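Retro notes, item 3 of 5
We never archived the inputs for the FE2/S2 (inorganic) cluster complex last cycle. Fixing that now. Sequence and ligand:
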Amino acid sequence: MPRVTFIARDGSIDVCDAEEGWTLLQVSRAFGIEIEGACEGNMACATCHVIVQDPWYQRLLAPSDDEEDMLDLAYGLTETSRLGCQIELTANLDGLVVRLPDTGENL
Ligand code: FES
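Structure as it came back at the time:
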């Protein structure tokens, strides 16, 4: 059961025990984390943008070209930005830490 830590915009922390196979967006929905996810994981928005904390970014599968294109639309893009709907949790990601971008006004 991978454990995920979300750091909110105000610095508050939520620790969530997720199911393997869930996406980060699904975890946020299950635990009431404030990630919009307007397109419900169809990679047609960037409102599920999260910033993956080191060293976790390197452990993720590389983003697809489509994800990178969509990330270009995300507000507050960083070197370790990803779309939450594209991160699928595995046992290898137990302990993952992500931060929500400073503004919720993503595209
Ligand atoms: Fe729209 Fe992730 S929910 S791209």
